Amino acid sequence: MAQVAIFSFLFGAVFGLRFKVFVLLPLTLATGAIALLITPILSLTLVESLAGFAIGALALHGGYLFGSFARFAVAAARAARVVARPLKTAR
Prior knowledge:
Elements: H1 2-18, H2 24-42, H3 46-83
């Protein structure tokens, strides 16, 4: 489960850097589909599969939030650097 959480968090962070929030719905649905496909392969019970899906979806959303904050922090740092330049005035 820890591997699922780490992978989902990193995957969400990458998508948070690039895409808008509407990408979370297809990603969450894909996480559920993957959980359903992996269940018989690993011979998991339904409860274990749902727990893995819940952990993966929560980590995905947390990673997206982290990536989104990182994107806005970089944008704010760039904006502060641009605004801090002295203005050239006409004499």
